[in-house]
Amino acid sequence: MEKIWFNGKLVPRNEARLDFLTPALHYGVAAFEGIRCYRTSRGPAIFRLREHLERLLHSARVIGWRELPFGIEELTEACKATVRASGLAECYIRPLIWLAEGGWNLSVDAGKPHVAIAVWEWKGYLGPSALEQGVRANVSSFTRHHPNATMTKAKISGNYPNSVLAKTESLRLGFDEAIMLDAQGLVAECTGENIFLVRRGRLLTPPDGAILEGITRDSIFELAADLGTEVVQQPISRDQLYLADEVFVCGTAAEVIGLREIDFRVIGSGRGAPVTRALQDAYHAAVRGEHPRSAAWLTPIAA
Ligand SMILES: Cc1ncc(COP(=O)(O)O)c(C=O)c1O
Q1: Quick one: which of 22, 66, 168, 217 has the most CB atoms within 10 Å?
Q2: 171 alpha carbon to ligand 1 midpoint, in Å?
Q3: Across the chain, what does the average pLDDT equal?
Q4: How far apart are CA 266 and CA 279, in angstroms?
Q5: Which numbered atom of ligand 1 lies nearest the CA of 191?
Q6: Which residue has the higher pLDDT, 80 or 124?
Q7: Rounded distance, CA 93 to CA 119, Å?
């Protein structure tokens, strides 16, 4: 039976139940993470676990919780224990902190944060051919959140209907992913990924201001530096994407995936995407324990 780590204990999934009258369900007051565990020669290992859990605690701070029932060390052990209990060699890990036991007055101080962690198998987020062929995206008709409306630095559940609106629209239009512009009309990010473009050998990506600071994005900064590729954070317009030599998106679920077409315009020369390919290879080696950076980035789950 699948196990969920639920407020401090591993319980069978059918015991990890919520009251319908849980404010988080009604108002989206919850913070979550998306983390991956990979098969390595040293057994299953979690990629950049500490950075993900730090971001989870930062998201909780942005929501306004002043005290949480569990700290980073307990959550680290809890993630490892949940993966061990699953018996899976590779999986996706989903910790969630949500507002329970009150909060109908719309104040986090009126309720309590509860915490749970689930794991599941999750492969090929953008489809089976995405890695080899890249995917097709459009610029969404939906605007990314203004950072002063809902906080873009935090993975808050209530932010995600914005992504759901955009992604549903794109899929219904026949695309694979949506590129979202910020309130100023500049490129922000995708529904669950950050975005990079390659122009004349340099990597460009939107600045931190109005986006989620992706942990995959941060890994790309390091891996690009290793490859001697300059990375510049700068405002990017929609037409800069059209004129790029390569465009790719990156995130924990999607990993590193090229965009072969944006708004019906083919990206690049059609002669492959060498920078994207090199970063994909480096990333896949890093997550599987086969890269000089792996030792610092992987946490084996063994007890
Ligand atoms: C909106 C958004 N941007 C970017 C990312 C990529 O972040 P990460 O690389 O930490 O998974 C995600 C995924 O968590 C996301 O939801």
Answers
A1: 217
A2: 19
A3: 96
A4: 21
A5: 1
A6: 80
A7: 4
Q: How far is the CA of 204 from the centre of ligand 1 (A)?
A: 17
Q: Which residues of 27-45 are buried (b: 16+ CB within 10 A; e: fewer)?
A: ebbbbbbbbbbbebeeebb
Cα 195 versus chain centre, distance: 12
Question: How far apart, in whole angstroms, are the C-alpha atoms of residue 106 and residue 83?
Answer: 34
CB 193 less than 6 A from any atom of ligand 1: yes
Cα gap 236→105, rounded to integer Å? 40
In tens, the pLDDT along 235-272 reads: 999 999 999 999 999 999 999 999 999 999 999 986 77
Q: Is the CB of 192 under 6 A from ligand 1?
A: yes
What percent of the chain lies above the pLDDT cut of 90?
92
Fold (CATH) for 3-120: D-amino Acid Aminotransferase; Chain A, domain 1 (3.30.470)
Q: Indicate whether residue 167 lines ligand 1 (CB < 6 A).
A: no
Domain boundaries 130-287, CATH class: alpha beta
Contact 31, 156 (CB under 8 A): yes
Please tell me if the CB atom of residue 157 comes closer than 6 angstroms to any atom of ligand 1. Answer: no
Report whether 113 contacts 104 (CB < 8 A): no
- The answer to whether residue 222 scores a pLDDT higher than 80 is yes
The neighbouring-strand residues paired with 188 are: none
CB 281 within 8 A of CB 30: no
Cα 212 to Cα 135: distance, rounded to the nearest angstrom: 21
Read off the pTM. Answer: 0.97
CA 105 – ligand 1 centroid, Å: 30
> What ranges do the domains of the chain cover?
3-120, 130-287
